[in-house]
Specification:
By secondary structure, the protein is mostly helical. It is about 50% helix and about 0% strand.
Length: about 80
């Protein structure tokens, strides 16, 4: 669906930089951020995996859903 929205220039500039850094389109970045805000699964993005802290040494067991949410949270935390 196409829509038109009015966003602050600084936000759009920051979004363009983030999209370029993540090798994704501005459309994908906005869709992922909006899906996260609305509680959806979002879209997948190529990039490096964040470190996931653990109190235990060794392997950390995590489900694909938990990993996906961690990646989404990390992406959103990087937004200005």
């Amino acid at each position: 669906m196409r829509t038109t929205i009015d966003l602050p220039d600084a936000l759009v500039r920051a979004a363009r930089v983030r999209a370029a850094e993540g090798d994704e389109t501005l459309k994908d970045l906005f869709a992922r951020a909006l899906a996260r805000e609305l509680g959806g699964a979002g879209t997948k993005r190529r990039g490096e995996l964040p470190l996931i802290a653990s109190k235990r040494r060794g392997m950390v067991e995590t489900s694909p859903e938990e990993l996906e949410q961690t990646l989404i949270d990390d992406d959103v935390d990087r937004l200005p």
